[in-house]
Backbone:
């Protein structure tokens, strides 16, 4: 159970502590931040509201710890990461329980998130050993005018202190996707978890503590992003920010100093369906892509652009599948569970009401109880409706009927977002042309958008982000290149 057994020391009475300098602590602010269970809409957990002084202390320890961590052999860093991964996987039950209570993630998916996170850490350790163990060797005589008098050796070195800020929807997985690469590359890491998801993240951090990482190397400060966010992201001790979330990331990019940024932000992933598509496959992917975790995924299918000639048939198939989705509490593993907060539910309702006023076709009756919104397919959506462009982050999916493929590509590219997209057709040549024309970081052919497997490159363009994630890219992003040049007094050529 959460906060018991191995996790007793992270809890103080009714509130979870924050993690600094290798210890679990109460904040001197004396203030607690409540975490509301989306299902009951009652306070379920409380975490510390950390102060600016506490953030300063964490940054100081992170800086000191990083200096000796960078001198720790790569294989030893990898060994500790493997240890943390196995503890995390062993502790999947209490951590999954937190995910169910804090973010209403269906119980089975919550366990999957923790196990996937353990696998991600292990893969990161292995990949780090491979790619950080290699450098480059350059010879000067390949550049015009030079003799072979200079040998250039390059290697990858850490950046220093990495600040990681994940979103609520994968508070464990999207935290370890930043922590693993940062640590294997020799950085220290400060985590600011999302408030909804903070207790799951604190349990995850305790697994790193139990694995025996040096004190100060990893810390976790809690508090509302709106209160401590700016202080953290503009802190002079931070050498890199890896952020996943919504528009907040755009504001952070403008405020952060001259440091590397990795931003994974929102999306409005389009699903383009051609006349020759396998409509059963499309319908199954629309259900999985649009309604898994109640649509609260960055890579959820967020607009279907279907050729008019097959639109009736597709909508019927999707409607039949929507009718089979179970709706209810996450503890019962329902397909559709309450969305994360009341304000999120109100926002989704605003999009639905706008579509109703503008006469979209409602394939189901709109129904909401508290934060629980029943799955809804909106047909005949037009570009003048908000739902055609905005990210509901809920179980509501618009269908726009198109008469040409170009119309679909145009709609996709007119969006401010450019995370992923997908195209369904049996014609691989057409699929490739459409993929090339879509201005998104990734295009999936004949499958719904997805972030995983976690070692694939993952990136958004336009307002969807800066840089690329995926294990290898994140490790590289959290390093810089160092070169040493050996200058010879006379040219020297190897003769064979
Ligand atoms: P969010 O509101 O942007 O919050 C993300 C994180 O930022 C949270 O930890 C939040 O903390 C923190 N934060 C808030 N204000 C801050 C500030 N001023 N400075 C620094 N940090 C601050 O996003 P969300 O609602 O958690 O997640 C949903 C969004 O994430 C969607 O737009 C979704 O598409 C996107 N997302 C993108 C990806 C991707 O990889 N592209 C993956 C998943 C989700 P608090 O919780 O304390 O406010």
Residues:
């Amino acid at each position: 159970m959460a906060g018991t057994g191995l996790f007793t020391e992270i809890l103080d009475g009714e509130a979870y502590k924050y993690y600094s300098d290798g210890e679990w602590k109460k904040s001197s602010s004396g203030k607690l931040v409540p975490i509301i269970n989306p299902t009951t809409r009652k306070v379920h957990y409380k975490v510390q509201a950390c102060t600016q002084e506490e953030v300063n202390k964490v940054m100081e320890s992170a800086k000191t710890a990083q200096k000796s961590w960078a001198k720790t052999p790569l294989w030893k860093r990898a060994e500790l990461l493997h240890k943390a991964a196995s503890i995390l996987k062993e502790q999947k039950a209490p951590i999954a329980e937190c995910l169910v209570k804090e973010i209403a993630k269906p119980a089975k998916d919550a366990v999957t998130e923790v196990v996937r996170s353990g696998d991600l850490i292990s893969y990161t350790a292995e990949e780090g050993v491979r790619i950080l163990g290699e450098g480059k060797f350059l010879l000067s005589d390949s550049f015009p005018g030079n003799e072979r008098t200079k040998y250039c050796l390059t290697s990858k070195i850490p950046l220093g202190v990495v600040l990681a800020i994940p979103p609520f929807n994968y508070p464990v997985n999207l935290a370890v996707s930043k922590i693993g690469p940062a640590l294997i590359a020799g950085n220290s890491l400060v985590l600011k978890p999302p408030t909804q998801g903070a207790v799951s993240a604190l349990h995850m951090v305790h697994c790193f503590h139990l694995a025996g990482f040096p004190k100060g190397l990893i810390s976790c400060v809690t508090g509302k992003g709106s209160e401590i966010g700016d202080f953290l992201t503009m802190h002079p001790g931070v050498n890199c920010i890896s952020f996943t979330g919504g528009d907040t990331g755009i504001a952070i990019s403008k405020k952060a100093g001259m440091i590397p940024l990795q931003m994974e932000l929102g999306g409005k992933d389009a699903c383009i369906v051609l006349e020759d598509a396998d409509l059963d496959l499309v319908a199954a992917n629309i259900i999985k892509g649009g309604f898994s975790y109640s649509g609260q995924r960055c890579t959820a299918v967020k607009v279907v652009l279907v050729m008019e000639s097959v639109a009736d048939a597709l909508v019927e198939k999707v409607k039949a599948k929507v009718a089979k989705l179970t709706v209810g509490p996450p503890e019962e593993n329902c397909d559709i569970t309450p969305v994360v907060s009341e304000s999120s539910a109100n926002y989704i309702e605003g999009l639905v009401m706008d579509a109703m006023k503008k006469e979209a076709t409602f394939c189901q009756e709109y129904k909401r109880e508290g934060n629980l919104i029943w799955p809804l397919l909106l047909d005949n959506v037009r570009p003048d409706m908000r739902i055609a462009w905005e990210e509901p982050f809920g179980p509501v999916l618009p269908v726009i009927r198109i008469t040409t493929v170009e119309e679909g590509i145009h709609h996709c590219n007119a969006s401010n977002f450019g995370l992923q997209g997908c195209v369904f057709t049996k014609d691989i040549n057409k699929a490739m042309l459409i993929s090339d024309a879509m201005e998104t970081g990734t295009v999936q052919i004949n499958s719904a958008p997805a972030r995983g497997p976690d070692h694939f490159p993952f990136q958004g363009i336009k307002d969807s982000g800066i840089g690329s994630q995926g294990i290898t890219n994140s490790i590289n992003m959290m390093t810089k290149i160092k070169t040493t040049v050996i200058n010879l007094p006379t040219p020297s050529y190897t003769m064979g």
Observations:
- The longest strand covers residues 150-158.
- The two ends are 66 Å apart (CA to CA).
- The mean pLDDT is 98.
